[in-house]
User: Fold these one by one.
Assistant:
Number 1:
Amino acid sequence: MPHPIILLISLLSFVHCQQEYEFGFMLNSNDNYGTAFEKIINFAIDKFNNGTNQVTLTPKIHHYDGTSLYKMVNEACDLLTEEIDLIISPSYSDSIGVQADVFNKVDMPVIGTSATDSHLITGSRDELFLLPPLDEMQAHVIVDILSKYGWMKPSIIASDSNYGIHGVTFFQKLLVETTAEVSVKEEFDTSVYFFKAEDNPEDIDISDITTNVLDTMDRVFVLHCEDFYGKYVLKKAHEAGLMGETFVWIVTESITSSPQNLKIYYNETDKNGYYPKYYDGLLGISLYVDTESTNYRTFKEEALVASQGTLKEDDLIPIVAMLYDAVTMAGQAIEENLAPQNVALPPNTACGEEPWAGSDYIVNSLVGHQYEGATGTYRFMPNKTTTMTSKYRIVNFRDPGNGGASMFTGIGTWTSKERLKMTSSDVLFLGGVKEPPRGLPNSLNGRHMRVGAVHGPPFALNPTGCKDIRCWSGITPTIVEKLALALNFTYEFVVPKDNKYGHYNETTKVWSGMVGDLLENKIDMIAMDLSVSSIRREYIDFTIPFLETGVSAIIKGESKTNTMFFFLSPFGFSTWAAVLFSFVVFALFQTMISKLSPYDNNGKVRFAASKCVCTKCSLESHHMADTAEVCLVEEAEAECEESKTTILNALWVVGGGLVGQGGE
């Protein structure tokens, strides 16, 4: 039996080796997944501490009001007073940026488990780590989806937050690069609309956007905003009539990763909520996480058991699992690189100016550490992003039809290597249709059209410059009037400021006149005698012409001396020689064929001879018959004499064919 003193020394050695680290967590109190986040944090900490580790972790969880920047900063400052070693936050990009500015000021390391904005990585945030792939990859996925279905005129609706603006920047940059690689007919023509990112999501106003897109007849929309704005934007779009057949809505990863935030609630006491029917047919992209993998299934099973019924399976979505992975990964990284005894203690002053000298130890522990978790394999690179493979799911929101809840279901995948790969042909689009919309309006019913025109008799006349449509007359105003009656739309004529049709300036790369107004979305169409030129066709579409004209150049021809053989002038000597030679050869050939063919005159005589039954036949080999009265051979020869083919006949027939007049 070991001596008690030896056991005491061993225990003291263990206590001495055991190192305690405090992890701080910033949770948004308005997040629908806030409860799930908190329970997963405690589950991850408990599981790590129950292992045979030389490190113990202690969680310090602080909740902040996501609608108030001031309150979030104060909460971050309060968290610093608790001698925190590392901050882990599942907040989205804008919030992470603010938190990192507070914590990194004292060199406190921060891990963002949901932020995807690559603009967050700056020199002033050198201790900020981002776990998921960045937004640049999302832009590639969306462009590939648009290209697949031929939706070349998308409109981007985004919040005016850093997250929205930076996402749009990536998207526009990629569209320009993509357009440079495709033909003119496949050019992307993109419109961008921003709405104010209100502190209270219910207060957002997109009425100007919906009015504008109704006028411009946009049909394909990409919604890039934080998850808590998503349902309000879609609701207002539905109320404006922008979520029916012929429309397409593609939502980004921030929305698809938090489907619970799309639910509509009847009142404040409603705890379940529902997904409105107009969501059916939404397309989206989400970070691909293999939820059927052994690691993910093990994580879910253990988390559900540990929660003792306080967590539901629907709560354990990938962004919750990524928070679990971040806690475990950080704990393992610190344990593999145990701190020496002389590492400085973390700061304990709220938003202090004094940097923490020991932060390099935590940062160096995280960089290069590889971890295989529930949501994938991670390794932080020196730029503080991970090497996680950029893989996304293409998802489709739909009612499963079996009484289950509507949800995003996978219809395809995207990787940087294989690009877009659709795994299902059963795709539902808005309005319950299965055929992909064209992305263009199919009706002008009830629309108001801005029609470009200038005074140009006789096609359009308005000598006084009156703005009333009744002041216009001529061919094109009459055509527009008839179309408006037939298609039930209203219209107004818009005259360009320079009163020109449209000229392209090679130096400034800008169009003038009506063409410029059309490209700048100041008008919806042009109704004038606009010439169809090659340069204009590269930028705008034309209808079938209502008038075709030609331009001819008349020049003086060469004077030639008239001769009796002038008709031979179209061809040279060799050509005429070949024609004459062919003329004679074909005539001889036709004559020879007539003599030898069993179906021509000679054949007719030979056939008659084989059937001869008269006594006057000149061929002795023919059989006789008592009943014959007429010699068939002589009768055939008499007929052939009248129609036999001679060389002259053949020359006449071939000559008639050459001049295209026939032989008559």
Number 2:
Amino acid sequence: RRERMMMQQDNITVNVKQNYGQKWAGDVTIAASATGQELKQKLAVNISQDVNSFKLLCCGKFIKPEITLDQQKVKQNSKIIIMPQQSDSNPVQNIVQKTEEEVNRTKRLMKVVQSIADRSELEDTRHSVEIVNQHGVAMQLLPSDKKFLKIGMTMHDKGKYELQKAAELKLLLNTTPTKEINVSNEDNTTSNSTTTDNSNINTVQNSNDQSNKLTQIANQRIEKLKSALDYFLIADSEGFSKVSKDILNMVDNYGLLCLDVVWIYFQLSDLSSLSLAQWRLSNAESVFSRTYGPNLERLKLLKPNAANAELVTICRLYLLQGISSFHSSLLPASISFFAKAESKISDLVVSDDLVSILIGMGFNFKEARIALRSSGKNVERAVEFALNRREEKRKEREEEKKRRKERREQRRFGKTVMGKFVDLNAVKTLMEMGFEEDVVVEALRQTDNDIIASSSQLGENLEVLKASIYQQRQQQQLEQQQRQMMEEEMKIISESEKDQKSNAKDNSEMEVEEDRKLNEGVEGQKLNEEGMEVEESEEEKKKREEEGNKKEEERRKKEEEERKKDEERRMEEEVERDLLEAVETDA
């Protein structure tokens, strides 16, 4: 009896009204220490709706689900309005807006990629394209071929990054535990059925949350796959397809791109693209046949130790051809392709014992596996291959550092009067004669890299060269000061915009706080009146609700506009950051 009296003292009765749908209204008794979510769960049973489909308004503020009712000043006889949980816009507008954002993001990324591709090798010290022959000699490429190769390889790398994210989401989807939930179907008609009903509601809610989480992960994976496909198609249409056929036939990049496109077709279960998949697989097979040889003869001749490593690519080709033939009802061809893939895979499989031996020698798992595959699973040859591969990579890194340093120096020295970059060998030759670097560079700039004319000018007009250098430095200092002034002005403008936004937000919060206080004052006045009930007409109630809805709508629009601006700014920063991550690849 004492516990029941304490529970009755803690309970409060609130007046609830639904302003949409079936217009349900009534009194609900609940503990003051209960949370807003518990009140929503109790009301969801009365109005026969999902908990997440509505929200509660009391005293001019929405009830938060994680906070208790007494902390949110929900008192005895408080009036609560049930309102629908509306999204910012309808689904069609969301889809259209999302599509437009993706298109704009792709366009912005294409502009940045093309701006990088338009730079010369010396202007861009981070991104370069180079094709070497079997003797390690770099081949001469046309500027247009270099440009389109940069675009194709950059967009291909960006698509592979999105494809990797989709693979991670698939792994998360497969490892997320799914709980089997049994919901009680007993019909409780006694007065103590409230606890059982609440537990059943919680169980159903947990099941819905789990299924919603899995659906969300699956949708994110599909979006990543579609995004990767868009990047791959741009790499094909705007990059590799515009490269001259002679150059494109020398490399295997286009064949690898075709394999990635077909893989995404099958990941998306897009059987409508089956004919395109067969066409791309045919192109990939012809590319690999030209670059590697029909049976990898050319690859074995040029790189004997690396031939087995390329079997992974051939296995991918056979497996995708087998899948494509199976869905095209070509069963004999499908069986043939799968048999070829199985024979190649048997050559690639290495035992864990052999891998553990190489790991014990100081190599990592990847190095050990590649070495064993390339050496025919012979441990001694695998160790020799791994050491040689490390040494080759070290030399390549040193040469690349040297090339980047030379490009930075040439960019620092500038161009000659004819638009050429200063010749570094000429700079070294003249400096060995005892001249300083700055006057040597200035002489080469004026004489268009003519060593003889530069040496005569250094001997006769040395003071003129120094005066020219002094003027250039003064001009550079002036330009630097102007840039600093512009940056400071931009900072001041951005800070003023932030202050205006913060002031507008503070004003909106003050308006909401004043409305809340006004509503609380009106509510308190009603509770303190002795037996007096003020009956409002339906027109006055509607008018007050409309005014409150208008203010809430205006505040929401302001917050939405600010959120969109911040999202656009953040998206641009992410595009630039993702681009820098994607293009830092040694061609």
Number 3:
Amino acid sequence: FDCWFESGSMPYAQCHYPFSVSQEEFRKRFPADFIAEGLDQTRGWFYTLLVIGTALFNQNPFKNLVVNGLVLAADGTKMSKSKGNYTDPMKIVEQLGADSIRLYLVNSPLVKAEPLKFVDQDVKNIVKEVFLPWYNAYRFFVQNAQRFELVHKQTYCFDPDSVPKAHNFMDKWIVAASQNLIKNVRHEMDNYRLYTVLPSLLGFLDNLTNWYVRLNRYRLKGETSFSDCKAALDVMFSTLLDFTVLMAPFTPFLTEKLYQNLKLGLPLDSREESVHFTMIPQFKRELIDEAIETSVSRMQTVIEVGRKLRDQKRLPLKTPLACLKVIHREDKYLDSLKPVIPYIQKELNCLEVFLEKENKNLVKLKALPNNPVLGARLGKSFNKELREAISNLSSEEVSTFESTHRIVVKGVELSKDELVVKRSYEQLGENLESGGDNEVVVVLDCTQSEDLKKLGAARELVNKVQRLRKTSGLSIQDKVQLVYEEPTHFYKSLLEDYTNFLTQNLKIPLSRVPFEDYKYVAAGTVEHNFQVFSFSLYKQS
């Protein structure tokens, strides 16, 4: 017997069984819900625990085993003090915080019992890609809650009853996504699948920061009605609070910092002293809406494809386009996009969005082998001849495969996940750009008419004036006038066609000379094709 016998006796020695506790009391804690150690303990502690548990009780002494991999130096070698091939962890803690290291390790191959090459830069990336967007979303909420209090002269207090009553489509989506997140996190944690938890949490954070906040910024800033602004603030508060509680076990310090301020929006009887005294919330099944989540997911795909197409054509997002076409083989898919068309129009700056069912004469299908899957199943039988035969399948054969999920090629039956289907739009002109994923095709009409150029320039002028108002310290209450110099031919035509657009969006008068009681504040310019439009802002004294 050696020290491993002592380690293997841990479940009994820790409570001095059978001398200091009864059999009944011991059975309440045996077997353990889980144990956790490194992969190197497979032939050590894990083994001796199992041997002694089996010998004494014919039973495994633990229900779940959480095994972590080994942390290596950045070059893949074992960390060594003598070699000095790693940074002192405390230095990283001082520079980037303990939470950044925790999240880096928990969201790594280590939780799958695989090795990790520890790279300092990757820890910095956690701060940049996770903590900063998260904190910026939190700060944006706080700023607008404070603005709400200032404008409406009342203290912001979260109303939990408003969340189930949300009527805005994006509110319903983020609430559904939040409840689904709670459901999945609880389920995966209950089953000790830690490696699936962080990806889902960080995926939700991306949805919250890059999609919900972006698409609802104007509502959260109070640019709609009082009730709509309050509803948006309540939804964001609810999702931020739930997310903070869910993240608390992984990033205990940042979540504590956020919770101490967020809880001020809760009723007094709902506040806890610490986020770590707050129980993980139960999900509300009635708020989960898979259809809405599917619609938004498809919307995100269309928008991301559209952005890539704009980049390919070197068309910045500020340049308006006449139309965008979304093509899919199923009416159900297209119908799911109808509620989110306004968001597609806004994000891709397109005047119109058309939903069109796939036409076999215009959309051609091509099949490619899923090399990892087929290679694992067929081995040497997955040869060049089979790969070429798959690539040479006709568009009609691939279409049939999509419907039946099976096809026989060179005597080999292939199923759904073994082929990758690519789509291409055939009817392309000089100003058309198309692309997509394996399901949907997006076609952009990039034709730039004179009217579109004027609309883009008008929007640019509005943005420039709004930025100038902000940097000049002008408030919403100030009476402001825009005075412009003699316009060039292009801007003269723009003013004739878009005067109503400019006055409605700027909400200030435009003229060639200032009013009598108005004083100069600031000046600015905008440019289109080397034609400059100069203007000044005047404020009533």
